[in-house]
Amino acid sequence: MAEPKKHIVVLGASYAGLSTAHYVLKHVLPRRPDSGGYDVVLVSASAEAMCRPACPRALIADRFFPQDKLFVSVAAQFAAYPPSQFRFVHGRATALDRRGRTTETISFHALVIATGASTPSPLLGFNDGPSDALRAHWAAFRTALPTARSIVIAGGGPAGVEVAGELGEHLNGSSGGGWKAWWPLGSSKPPPRVAITLVTSAPELLPALPPAIARAAEAQLARLGVRVVKNTRVTAVSFTASPSPSSGNATSDPDPDPDPLTSNAAVALASGAVLHADLYIPCVGTTPNTAFLSSSGLLAADGRVATESSTLRISSAQPSERLYAIGDASDYARRPAVHAVLAAVPVLCANLRRDLLLPLVGEGKGQEGDDAMFREDTRATQLVPLGTRTGVGAVMGYRLPGFAVWLIKGRDYWLWTTGRLWSGRQWAKES
Ligand SMILES: Cc1cc2nc3c(=O)[nH]c(=O)nc-3n(C[C@H](O)[C@H](O)[C@H](O)COP(=O)(O)OP(=O)(O)OC[C@H]3O[C@@H](n4cnc5c(N)ncnc54)[C@H](O)[C@@H]3O)c2cc1C
Q1: Does residue 218's CB lie within 6 angstroms of at least one atom of ligand 1?
Q2: Could you tell me the distance, in angstroms and rounded to a whole number, from the CA of residue 192 to the centre of ligand 1?
Q3: Is 128 in the pocket of ligand 1 (CB under 6 A)?
Q4: From which residue to which does the signal peptide run (predicted)?
């Protein structure tokens, strides 16, 4: 009787997990003498993959992006592999039994944790839910947006700045030609149509970029009707359901459970000020999707999987245990970034291939090479569109002009790159 397959289980099907699955299928399993004895099982809470960086613009309206490119079916990206080599499981990992080596009911021979991270606002990615939930959140937000006259956004990192820029352009007009352009020269400026306030606890926006670039972003945001409040953090937010224009019933009881996506907010700041806004969007940090590992002993203090940053093996695991973590769920890199993920995938897979060979080495049938090593590029690399026409940023420490930021990222928020990535064409050659 044929031996049961040994499963290489990958949890999460986005930049990290989907890429790892393709790479293992293309370059790890074919190079094993007993490659037929293995398969890849890709498990994901969402049946689709999406271009997550596009969320700050995509949340406003579907017309900004072709939806069939923005969202793709995970299973369809693996249709070319035989079913004996690949299986997609649409499901959420809820527990890990490291000794029993199962997640839910799937046994694993090797395990790659690539479950990413969740944003406090459900508008900015799948988080750990299905893709339909993201579309439902966008739909709810879009019902409230046309009547909003004030918006508070918390967080001066790239997500907060991009959301502010996109909403500023959409609601107040585009840079230089928007809400101020028609105002007579020399007279005092009118307020923007929608007052957008971006709050950051830091002394400047975009802490990963030099202050001169951050200030250029702030000036551009001002042209889009966005006011930046620095050096103070949001300490509490309370919501009151916005009055429905159709109800006309001012005396009805307040909604005990207002939807934070569509409700009026009172935003308390550490400075003592309270900002009242028709809509509030938190863009402050992320939480790793690792709750299912809470009792595994694998997590670092910040909730990410404690990972050897050079080899992508989980820190507490021996090579013979074949446990790895990559992407935003792992602490291998300082900042969440797709380019860090893409540089790490070949390293993780080379070490997985090496670790799979260890038993053969023990039997004198294989040769153990050196570990592959990942080194994070720590030079300032961040591109931040500010609406559909310009942006700020740097690549490997070099500042880029607004036109270049638009060309590389701002015109479609990287959608030009994701087709190759999701389909696995990006990994056709071994790196
Ligand atoms: C608004 C925004 C803009 C960004 N812009 C950029 C940018 O321009 N450039 C850049 O380099 N980076 C950007 N990033 C960061 C980038 O998106 C992340 O680094 C990248 O998405 C990380 O990929 P990942 O595969 O680790 O995780 P994620 O993309 O978070 O995907 C995690 C996957 O795991 C699944 N999952 C979650 N929990 C479970 C579970 N328990 N069981 C099974 N599956 C699970 C999810 O469904 C999803 O498929 C941005 C991030 C945000 C939020």
Answers
A1: no
A2: 33
A3: yes
A4: none
